[in-house]
Amino acid sequence: MSAIPVIAIFDVGKTNKKLFLFDENYQIVFEKTARFLETVDEDGYPCENIESLRLSVFDSLSEVFRMNEFKVKAVNFSAYGASFIYVGEDGKPLTPLYNYLKSYPEELSEQFYAKYGGKDLVSVQTASPVLGSLNSGLQLYRLKYEQPEVFNKIKYALHLPQYMSYLLTGKACSDLTSIGCHTCLWDFEKNRYHEWTQHEGIALKLPSIQPANKVLPALFPGNNYKVGVGLHDSSAALIPYLVNFNEPFVLISTGTWCISLNPFNQLPLTKEELKDDCLSYLQYQGKPVKASRLFSGYEHEQQVKRIAAHFKTDVIKYRNVAFDPEIISYLKAKKQTVTQDANAKTSAFEKRDLSEYHNDIEAYHQLVLDLINLQVYATQLVLKGTPVKRIFVDGGFSKNSVFMHLLALAFPTIEVFSASMAQATAVGAALAIHKEWNRKPIPNDIIQLKYYSASQTISI
C-alpha cells in the first residue's frame, strides 16, 4: 500500500503544543499533544522553554518520518503572537522567550510614546492598543534600552512561528500576520513598518517579509518536503472561512477570549474604537481585519464556578444547558437590580445576587444573557459600515445552545451560524500553502454549519 501524502502542522499555544498530520482531504490522520514545564527569565518571570520546544519539533518530525504509512510533503506552523525570539550570529537564541504577560516598565512606555507623538497617535497609526509587553515591538524597544549589549548582538528578531520555520530551513523571514497583530511595528496608514523602527535601529533586525503561501527547502533531513514560513494563530484560524465564503461575514472566534473578526472592514481604527479594545490584524493576504476583543470565555468559566458553589451543583452540568425561551422572557421582564454598561469589559453578572434566582438554570441563563449584551456591543463595533449578512461562531461558545440562540435573537437581520471544524488554526496553516503539497482541490465541506434563527435551529 502506498504512503498517504500529508502535511505536518505544528500548532503552538501558550498551554498546549500540538502536531497534526492532515491528508489531502484535510482529515486529521495523526495528532500528538505536548505540554512543557515553563522556565524563568533573568527576572524570575515564567516563560516558554525554547529548548524544549526546539527539541520537540525535531523529535516529533523524526518520529513522523519513520512512519511508513505517511509521506510528509510539507510542514507549516501556527503560534501565538507577541513572541519574539532573538537570534545571534550563531543561529541560537540570545535571551529567553519573554512572556507577553510580563509587566512593562511605565517609565519606558512613557518615554516611547512621548518620543513618537503620544499614545493616541501611535495606537491609531499601528492599530495597536497600548498593551505593554503584548505589543511585541515594545519588547524589542525594552531590550535596546535595558540590555544594549544583547540588542547589539541580535542578527534576527523572529516571531515564534517564523523561528520554528527557521529551525528547519536556516532561512530567517518575517510574516505579515505576525507583524500585524498589535505589535506597534506596522504603520497601517502607510502599509509599511512604522518610522520608529527605523529611528531605533530595529528595522535592521527584522528579516525580509515573505508571503504566507511561500515555502522554503528544508535543511532538517527528511523526504524532500517543503517548509512554510508560519502564521500568527488568530489569522490562521480565519483562513478556512476566507477560502470557503465570498459573501461578507464576521467570525466570532471564542475561547478564553472572544474575538470578533471582520475581514471586510478596512476602515481605519478610531481613537474611540481603540479605547473599546478594538484593533486591526493583517490577514494572510496582507489586508487589514478589524477586530474587537472580550475576555468572555474566562468570565464564563469563573461565574459558572460561582453558580455551582451557590446552588451546590457540579460545574460539568453547565456544559450542555438547553436554551429555554420562557426563562429568557421572564428575565427580560423582571425588574433588574443591576444595570449593564454596554461598553464595559465584564458583564453585570458578577454584581448580581444569586439568591434572586429560583434555580441554577435560571441564573445560568442570566449569565449568558449578560455576556451576550457585551458581545453584541463588541461585535457591532466591527460590523459598522460593512454589508455583513452572516455571523459565524467557532470555538467553545459555538456549542453553547443558550449563547447561540441569544446571539441569533440579538441580530435578527443577520444569519447566525455555529461553525465546527477540527482545529481551525492548524487547518488554516495547511491551507495557506495548499498548492505546494496537495494535488486535490480544496474541499468545500471543511466547515460544518448549524443555522440559528430567533425561532428555530437548522443543521446544514
Automatic annotation (TrEMBL):
InterPro entries (alphabetical): ATPase_NBD (IPR043129), FGGY_C_2 (IPR049382), FGGY_N (IPR018484)
Boundaries of every Carbohydrate kinase FGGY N-terminal domain copy: 7-228
Name this polypeptide is given: Carbohydrate kinase
Signal peptide: none
Family per record: Belongs to the FGGY kinase family.
UniProt keyword annotations, A-Z: DNA-binding, Kinase, Transferase
Carbohydrate kinase FGGY C-terminal domain mapped to chain residues: 247-436
PANTHER family linked: SUGAR KINASE (PTHR10196), XYLULOSE KINASE (PTHR10196:SF57)
Listed GO MF terms: DNA binding; kinase activity
